[in-house]
Amino acid sequence: MAARKPAPKARDDEKDQILKLRMRRALWAQGYHCPVRVDLSHFEFKETGRLDRMSITDIDVLGIRFDPDLRRRVVVADCKSGAESGPNRMFWLSGIMRFFGADEGFFVKPSVNRHARPLASKLDIRVVDDKALEVLENGVNAESIKVRVGDKEADDFFIDNWGIKVPSGEAPTEGQIRVKSVFHYVQFMYWVMDEYRNIANIIDRFHHIKNDIDPFNVSHKILGYVGLQRLTLSILNMASVVYSRDVNELDRQIKLYFFGGTFFLRERERTVELLNNLFGSENDVMSLEPSYFGELSEITNRLIKNSSPSSKLLLHSDAVIYSFIVGGSDVKADMGNEYSLESIILLRRIADFFVKSAEMPPEMFHELSVL
Predict the structure, then answer these.
(1) I need a surface site. Which of 230, 282, 319, 351 has the fewest CB within 10 A?
(2) Residues in contact with 49: Cβ distance below 8 Å, sequence separation at least 6, in sequence order
(3) Residue 165 and residue 35 share a domain
(4) How many CA atoms within 13 Å lie on the side-chain side of 93?
(5) What is the count of structural domains for the chain?
(6) CB-based burial of residue 89 (10 Å sphere; 0-12 exposed, 13-18 middle, 19+ buried)?
(7) How many CB atoms lie within 10 A of CB 62?
């Protein structure tokens, strides 16, 4: 049976799209990395063994920022230009905020009924109508942002090049099906996984397509860089948690986080010990940690010890994507005073680690080498 074609990223109503991009740019100006159209899905295995996805909802704009001490802050924005009920959307937004552990929510609508405004304050939601959006943009100097995070043409380019391309009437190849599964992971599954599992999952999934991904294919290039952003976000999440627990025991805290806590770590240690007793020998011993774990620990240590430039990693990765892949001018010029060579060096380090661990083509992130 031919595989089903991947669902492309859905296009927004143009008015909704412009609202999302304006809000994204305003948040980016405040230091937030902002994925748009974040899909939340439920997954379950059918009797056939196939994993089926059921779409639940999507978030218009998700903002994630790390402070210079790597404390994480999350905001979500619901951007609607139509006649949706304000109170209904606010209750929906409140639930999404709880799901993501968001610090704040934004309800963005050209006009908001005054009866809905008192409800917003009780739900920790900021109401942003046309006037308030203008004030926000002016206050954060959003117009000065040169990175194309708020550009409709750039957003359309990204949407058009997301996913595999299968000519009409043809079935996807086995390689395309494998690549499709990775698009699927970074678009859908990443956001609903237990966060500690995402580092290993991303590396494993890209390793699975190491012979299929083409660094000179625009869609594959975008997939690679989005994968790098997700991996960077997950490593930053780990560094943030580890930093908050005990900087005197970084290696132990990294190990505890990576394996899901003390209980799961001990359970895996016992399993590995049992398997080694049954099947191992002095020359063939199964290891608990993956082969890249030592390098991952070194990178996490480096991020914590250089926490200020580390906090800007995701913004620099945005600038690289929009300058080199989507089409901008120059990363350094686009970022202006926010540009940090230290951040670029750290991003290169993570990219090199990603390529090595997943055994991807060395040209995958060559754009970083020229910065």
Answers:
(1) 282
(2) none
(3) no
(4) 31
(5) 2
(6) middle
(7) 23
Residues 180 and 296 in one domain: yes
Please tell me whether residues 29 and 171 are part of one structural domain: no
3-state secondary structure of 316: helix
Q: What is the 3-state secondary structure (H, E, C) of 191-220?
A: HHCCHHHHHHHHHHHHHHCCCCCCCCCHHH
Is residue 8, in this structure, part of any structural domain at all?
no
Whether 172 and 87 share a structural domain: no
Place of tokens 């020998």: 281
Tell me, what CATH number does 112's domain have? Answer: 3.40.1350.10
Give the closest residue to 362 by CA, choosing from 226, 216, 145, 235.
216
Inform me whether the pLDDT recorded for 280 exceeds 70: no
Residue type, 353: F
Query: Maximum CA pair distance of the chain?
Result: 73
The count of C-alpha atoms lying within 13 angstroms of the C-alpha of 13, restricted to the half-sphere facing its C-beta, is: 7
Is there a single domain that holds both residue 140 and residue 175? no
State the distance between the two ends of the chain, measured CA to CA, in whole angstroms.
46
- Tens-place pLDDT, residues 109-130: 999 888 788 888 889 899 999 9
Residue 38 lies in a domain: yes
Same domain, 325 and 213: yes
Tokens at 94, concatenated: 């409140």
Same domain, 139 and 32: yes
Residue 341 burial (CB count, 10 A): 11
Q: Residue 90 in contact with residue 120, Cβ under 8 Å?
A: yes
CB atoms within 10 A of CB 5: 15
Question: What are the tens digits of pLDDT across the range 294-324?
Answer: 999 999 999 999 999 999 999 999 999 999 8
- Domain residues for the domain of 288 are 156-369
pLDDT in tens, 153-180: 999 999 999 999 888 889 999 999 999 9
Rounded distance, CA 136 to CA 304, Å? 32
DSSP letter for each residue of 48-79:
TSPEEEEEEEEEEEEEEEE-TT--EEEEEEEE
